[in-house]
Structures are given as C-alpha cells and as structure tokens.
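Rotation project, supervised by the postdoc (A.L.). Task for the rotation student: set up a whole-complex structure prediction and record inputs and outputs verbatim in this book. Inputs entered:
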Amino acid sequence: MTVTCTTRLALFGCVALLTACSNTQGDENVFTVGKALYQNMKTEATTEPDPNAVAQVAQHALANSDGALAIYRLEKRKAVAVIRPIADNGAYRSWASYGVSDRRSVSSRNGILTSTRGLGNDLISSDLSALLSLVADRKEGEAQIEQRYLDGENQIVTIASDCTVTRGDRAHFATPVEPHVHVTRMTAACNQDTQTVNNWYLVTDSGDIVQSRHWAGPDFGYSTLQRLR
Amino acid sequence: MTRFSNRFALAAAVALCPVLAAADNLTTTVTNSYGVPGGLIDMPTAEMAPDGQLSATAFYFDGFGRSTLSFQITPWLSGSFRYAGTKDLTPQFSTYYDRSFDLKLRLLKEGTYTPAVAIGLQDFLGTGLLGSEYLVASKSFGDRLTVSGGFGWGRLGSRNNFDGFGTRDPFSFAGIGTGGDVDTSNWFRGDIGVFGGFTYDITDRLSFAAEYSSDGYDIEQAAGVFRRSSPYNFGLTYKLTPDANLRVYSLYGNEVGVSLSFGLNPKNMPVPGGTEQAPLPVAVRDPDAARDLGWSVQPTARKALSEQLQEMLATDQLDLVGLEISGTTAHVAINNPTYDQPAQAIGRTARIMTRALPASVETFHITFSDMGGMPSTTVSFKRSDLERLEHASADQALAAASFDDSLRFGGLPAPVADRFPRYNWSISPFTRISLFDPDNPVRADVALRFQAQAELGQGWVADGGISVKLFGNLDKTTQTSDSRLPRVRSDAAIYAREDGPRLDWLTLSKYHRLAPDVFARATVGYLEQMYAGASAEVLWRPLNSRLAVGGEVNYVQPRDFDGGFGLRSRRTVSGTIPEFNGHASIYYDFGNGFHGQLDAGRYLAGDWGATISLDREFENGWRVGAFATKTDVSSQDFGEGSFDKGIRITAPLSWLLGKPSRQAPTAVIRSLTRDGGQRLNVRGRLYDTVRPSRQTDIADSWGKFWR
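Outputs recorded:
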C-alpha cells in the first residue's frame, strides 16, 4: 500500500514539474493557474526603475537605430520605457519598447498617449480632438475629452473630462539631437466627475507636442511622453 | 450631454475603484453566523451584499458548525445555501448534518429618514431544523452606526415572543429524510419573536456588534447540547481584506464562537482588460497600392499568403481553418481555441489580415469554424473601415461590421491544406468530489487524466479521456442505494470503488449544419462514466436572437463498474434502465444578466418531467445558477430530497488569470444524487458550443475587439 502510494506521489510530482503536459498552447491546469497567480502576486511589488539603466537604453537606441524615438512613463505604475514606432495610422502612431520582444504597445496622437495594450487596466482609446486643436494652436479655451477603459465585465466605460486650456510661458526644450527647441507650455485642468487632473504639454511653434504629462487612467495616473528624436 | 457623460464617469469610477462601491451604508461584505449578508450575529438585518457578491462563510462554536455559500442574486435579493452540523443532537447520528436554503428580499431601500426593510425565509424547503421567517428593518446613523430590529417566526419566534397567526408544526426528527418540498403552510405561522441589535464601526477595519436574540435554541437545549443563559450576543469583526472578515463572538452568555468569511465579486476582475500581449496594429495601405492586382494571378503568391496568415494567426493562438481569396475579397475561417471573448478573436484576425493580405483586398469575411470545422457565423468588414476606426471608440467598429449566419452567407472557404486531421492532447490532474455523504460530508479523489482529441474535418471530432486515481477517499463511501427506481445514478459509489485506470469517455461526434440557424450533433461511443450509446441533437439558434430551441434523443447501455470497455445488463435490483431517453429544450436570454432554460422529456430512469434552470450570467463568463427537476416519480419513490435540485457556479479561468482562456470549470452542488430526474452527461452539447460564436455573444464582448 505504501509503495503504491509513493509511486503515485512520484507520478504526481512528475506531472507537477511537467506543467506543459499538452500539445495545445494556452491549455490551463491547476499548476499553470497556480503559477500564473503566484507570478501575478509577485509582479505587484513594482519599484521605481533605475534612471541610469533607462538612460543607457536611450543612448543605445539613439546610437543603433534610425527614426523616431521617445521615452514614456506611467507614474502610478512606476514604469518607464524607451519606445520606437511600429505603425502609423493617420494622426496616430503606435509604439513598442525598444530592445524588448514582449508584445506591449502604446499609441499616441501628436505626442499625447491615447491608448495602451497589454499593460493591464489598458486605456482602450481616447478622443482628444478638441483638446489637441487648442493645444497645437497654442490657444486658450474649453475642450471636452473622452478616455475609454474596460470594466470587470469587459464592457467599455468612458471617463469624460471638461478641460480648461491655458497658455503658459515660452521655454526651451532640449533633445539629444536638437539641443535648442523653442516651446510654449500649455496646461489643461480637466474636471472629471470625482477629481480634477492637471495636464501640461510643451508645444513647438509648428504645433508639435515634444513632451506631455497627461492623465492616462485611474490605474496609470499621469503618463509622460517625451520625444527623444 | 453633461448628464450622460457624468453617468459614464460615475460608472467608470465605480467599476475601476471597487472601494468606492462600498459607500452605500446598507451594503456589506460582512456575513452573520448563518453566512447571510448582515452585520449582526445570530439575527438577520435588512442589509444586502454588493450586487453579484459571492461569499463563503464558516462558523463554529462548541459542537455547532455552519458552512454557507451566499450569492447576491440582484441588488435586492440574496440567496444562501448552507450545510450545518450539530454534534450529539440526536442518537441517530454522532453529528446531525442538515442542508438548508435561505432567501432574503429587500422590500424598501433605506431613505434619509426611513429604514431599509427586508423579508426573509430561512431553511424554507421543508420543515428544517433552522426554519424561520422574519421581517426586519435596518437604519444607518452617520457613517458608523447601523441599528436593526425585527419580528421572527419559527426559530426566531421562540423567545421574547407574542401570539401570532395560526399554528406551526414543530420540528421533528421523524420528518427528516423526506424534506425538500416547498411547504408554505408553516410560513409566518405561530409565535412572533422580537429581536434587534446594532453594529458600530470602531475603525475602518474593526467593528463591534451587539444583539438581543429571539432564538431559544429549544431543540438543542432539549437535547442537552446547549445552554442558553442570556439572550445577548456580542461580536467583534476584523476586516482582513475588503472581501474577507474574521469575527469572534460571545454567544448566549456561555459560548465563544468564531467565523471566517471570504467573498468575491465576479464584476471585479483582478485585472480589467487583461494582461495578454498586445495585438498587432492595423497596417494602413498606401493609397496607390490598392490598384495592384498583379499578385492574384500567381499561384505561388496564394500559397505564401496562406502560410503567412496561418503563422501570424498561430502567434495569436488562433487557427486558420479555411481561406478563399480573390482580387478584392478575402474569406478566412478560423477556429478559436483561446479567446473567451469572441470579439477579441475577430479583432485580432481582422488586424492580422490587414498586415498579411495584398492591398487590393478591400472586403474581409471572417467565419467562426469550431468543432472540427462546423461553420457558424460570418462577420464582414470593409478594410478601409478597420483602417479608419482603429483608434476610435469600439462601438463604431461594431456599427461598421455586418453579421451573417455562415450557411446563409454561403461561399465558405475551402479548408487549408494539411489542416485536418489535427491532434490535441493533454495530461492534467483533476479532482472528483462527493459532497454531503452523512458519514463524511466531503470526499474527494485526485486523479490524473489523459485527454486526446482528433479534429478530422467536415465537423467530425474523435474525443477520449482516460483517468487514473492517484489518491483519495471516494472509495470509502459505504452508502448503499435504497432506490425504488432503476439504479441509473445511485450506484455511483460502486463506480468510485474501482481502483484501476478508467475510460472516462471515448466518442466520435459529427457536427453539422442542417439549415441556416439550425445545428446538429450526433455522438456515438462511451458517452460518460456510466453510459455508452448514441446521442443525437438538433438546435435552432438564430443569429441574433435571445431564444433557442433544441431537442435531443439518446440510446444508452449502462457501462461496467470497472470503467473498461464492457457493458452490463440494463436490469438492476430495482428495475430496468430504459434504452431511450431525451429532451426538448428551450433556452432564453432575458437580457438583464439572467438566462433561463427549460428541458422537458424522459429522464434516464424512464421518468417523465422537466428541469428548470435559472442562471445569473456575467459578461466575463461567470455564471451562478440553480436548477430543479420534477418528474412523475413520487417524493416517496424518489427518496431523500424529494426531487433533484442543485446550484452551479461557472468560474472562467480568464477572469482569474487576467489573460484569455476558454476554460471555465463548473462546480455543481446538488443534494444527494438519486435516480429520479437524472440526465445523460453527454459532452459537447450544442447550445454552449454554438452560443459563443453567434452575433449576440460577439456583440456583447465587443469591448475587447480592439484589445
């Protein structure tokens, strides 16, 4: 009896180690579920990334690639990444992390984060047209924006904000490739149902936003998107 | 417009910050000693749990244990299922176990000056040991204090009472074993007791409760297992997490009790939107490239296209089943083994098509073709709409999509070369659980199962599963059947006793489209643990309808107890198992999260009757429901429980894992399995197979189209 019991336990352990005992991708069993839950718990404890490491990636990217590069940050997530464009669609540009193969992406419109994919609690889409036309023209005024998310039942929920756009001071903005860019600092105080968020944008004289700090969602907090090249 | 957007913003705030949802004072995740939502101890309140909340509570004090599962069915209706054990209550059993169901209905919401009022039925099936009814009012004062008071009948009318209306049959152990029928003649009859109490939140995590109980514990005192020396109970509640509470109590002057409850709300997904990898972005065409049709005449180009599509779809864990491509139109048939939200499978396929197909192709058709290649629904897009709407609100892409029944649409793509046959296999551990055996309420086996499936194409699927028990105690069951019906299920203990490897099922199925909106299935082989035979089913499920109608006929032969290939005689000690059974079924989606099903026909033991099921469904795949079967078998012939009934919970793995998965295990909790009202457990029934690929479910999941 003891012998059979041990054999069975050994067999059980063998299966526990060979969690991918299937030829089908995405086939879940008690072990893969347990492993995923454990990993979910571990990833919750995020720490601020090392600025030097990010700077190194940025330098490497500038030296070893052509085309646009940017750096983005999600404040509440403490996530920073150097990103490169992967697709353009009209005014929208989609980006992925430079030098990383995992498929996560963000999209922007004229330098402001409009959507994210694969980050959890994703920003699904944004309608920023009214805000962008004021900010790019460096005009003051009122603008309504919408940001859309998925709730726990995969239904779309929209956070609508009424923004008051004001023009700030002129300033200098420097990128590694353009050390002197004249910009205007535009701010937008956006009233939502339960809070007010304060966004700002650095706009060139030709209407390009080279850096933005823009509220991206309850789980992300503010997003910062900054042009590197 | 402002009101409109505010409402959305509010909905977003509630959905995204579950903590805010608890702001309603008379909504609580705390449960009382009966596991029912409420902050008092042994007494009920008019409080409700947040809508959809599921909670499990274990309560214990010297010799008394209660395990309860509660579900907030709607914001104003709560249901509970309980398994309670009392030691030395009666000489028949060392511990007397009793199952019970409760319902609590909120009649009035709390107002500024008026209390919330609820009416409740406790242990309302039969003359239960815990049977009582109550009418209770609760009112909050400020953020911290809630006061409740009410009238109780039955158990809750046994102390501090006055004369009520009519008389009530006292509880008697002689009545046990036949309980289960709804007997309304005792409801709100007999003496009326007055009870009351309050809860006070000392800090955000710690609260205090005190109550005056009108429960006399008469039966327990008569049995000498309990002494009630005071009507006052006190409790301290510590909130471990927003959904988990640890409570300690001082009970009736002498006893100390403890309870632990865990809750979960299907609406609060741990990671809304999921953490699965990003989709490929839409590739927008160069405006001039669309006129180039040069590729379409080259056969090698077509083959290369098919291979590229297949590879890109495989990266997103989708299967290319068929492809038809002309100069301006492409039709892709896919099998979706991965995405529980069908719109996500469509959205990813459409984006891959924008990247893989030549610029001249402007019209995309995508057909769901699961179950070995049975076409179901075809979704069509203009490629330029996908390009235009990638960054817009998802409802615009839904408006731009068109849906057709695949058979009505016609022109189905030819299968891609080498797609069939395809073999899938897996080895995984699983558990078999037996509940409510009076000798041991929970018995379980852990077993290892090898599963294999061969998709043969044209709707043919061969499927099998073999399991080996690793360890467990299911074979220790000594319960013998005293059934007066043919033993169609009550021999389960004999099946569990066999130790060797067993063939769980081995079937060959053919899925087929008979006509637009009509689906058919035929299955032969070893259909389930206890039966072999053949099963045929037809289902009418229109593309965009809440209603579906189906029928099923089965021919069965009972299988040998050892789980091998052998069959045994249909004759059992208490009757012969009929060869034929079958049902007509109606399915209806009420649209507000509730789904109903009615099955009427002949059950395994030859009894005729109907099963009614009602489920609360969440868009993320969670389902919580109950079913009851009444057949022409009398309560006496049926035996304990009077008729077959149970509750079932489906938990989608995608919710738990935060990434797509079509696996969604269902747990069924039913009272003792008897022989009346039992159905054949054939695998792959049409309704749940077809429904996720119809327009209704695709549109409901559209939030994930661009995810």
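Student's summary: The domain at 289-419 of chain B is CATH 3.30.300 (GMP Synthetase; Chain A, domain 3).
Supervisor addendum: Chain B touches chain A through 70 residues (CB under 8 Å).
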